[in-house]
Design brief:
By secondary structure, the protein is of the alpha/beta class. Helix content is 46%, strand content 14%. The strands form four sheets. The protein has a five-stranded antiparallel β-sheet with strand order 5-6-7-9-8. Strands 4-3-10-11 form a four-stranded parallel β-sheet, with helices on one face. Helix 1 crosses helix 12, helix 2 packs across helix 3 and helix 10 packs antiparallel against helix 11.
Amino acid sequence: MEIKVYNSLTNSIEPFKTIKPNELSMYVCGPTVYNDIHIGNARPVVFFDTVARFFKTLGYNVKYVSNFTDIDDKIIKKAKEEGLTEKELAEKYIERYLKVCKDFNCEEVYNHPRVTEWIKEITQFIEDLVKHNYAYQVGDNVYFRVHSSDKYGILSNQKLDDLEVGSRIDVETDKEDPRDFVLWKLTSDEGIKWDTPFGKGRPGWHTECCVMIDKIFGGQIDIHGGGNDLKFPHHENEIAQVYALHNHYIANYWIHNGRIDFNNEKMSKSLGNTVGAQKLLDEYNHNACRLMLIQSNYRQNINFTYELMTPAVNDWEKMERTYISLYRNLELSNSIKECGYVEKYREEFLSEMGNDFNTPNAITVLYQVLKDINVILRQKEKDIDLLNKYLKTLDEMFYVLGLVPKFNKLNAEEKELVQKWQKARNDRDFALADELRKTITEKGIVL
């Protein structure tokens, strides 16, 4: 099937083709682990998990990597506040981050590299940049020479001379140019540091991902992703370094998701208006939380309010109820069997996902499938083969979207109990039906 994606590098929809047939290499910038993530941070986690699931469904071997920045000035400061070492603090928030991923039904990624495990390779990369005159050392700090790159600004569509020095660019007086960015920095604080040819310090943020991508994947990759806020300067600076040494843009396709606002204001930790991802997951059904994030086009910003959760919860309850009804009907009649798909809907769904990961339209196809299932389930004479095809089709759609119905499959005793309840209902013996339903509920069986 044809796949098209919006490439941030070219600002256009392009046909998608992987470097290696039926293999997908994808890297998504992960968190700096000094606190819990908010739902804005969680959006790329959920979206790129959906992308990976889609390609797996098409039969691709997916190599999906997302890093942990486990050394940073913020980590050092927070560790001191909490009376922990940087490693202990990082482990604490990595564990909490992974729980959020699990609660959002995200699959495990191929690799979660940590910056502290790649210092030797980062050091060598910086030495190579200095050797080829793309970087320079002043004291114990090393900077990338931005004017050495004629590609600088290609991702963010900014001209170097038009860049405003200030809020998004660190300003140090020892730079050749205020726009140059740090690759290695001297540190005199109590935090962890490494001895290198440049001095004792820590790597700059923008270099870390470049090195891990190159070493883990062995060169250029298919997709580099992250939130739109990373486009400049982080991703722009990544490209500048890799193009300087390797003459490519790291990835053939750069994909960025929109941000999440809160009550029409940009959600950020500095403004103190964040909604914790785990807090949301603790308060609402996990599937409803995921559904809320994927119901909008990934490139659009979401203005979050808690009112958004009401329709998400209601929609998921309807989806799950229909799925369980379908499964129970087939299960109780011992009619679950291997079969094909409802090809029309499968093709429509995958086509929408292949059209720049259009989850809103894909969900619309899913709703039509659920509507059809409910119509069939109300019929006295049910087409068992067709119901099995709908079950398989629905299973695949739920898998791609990362939605997981929660219910137990019945053992022989439970199946007999539910069948007695159904018979009581059909015989209009409502007293017995109510009694049996109470027993069924006590056993935790979802009907």
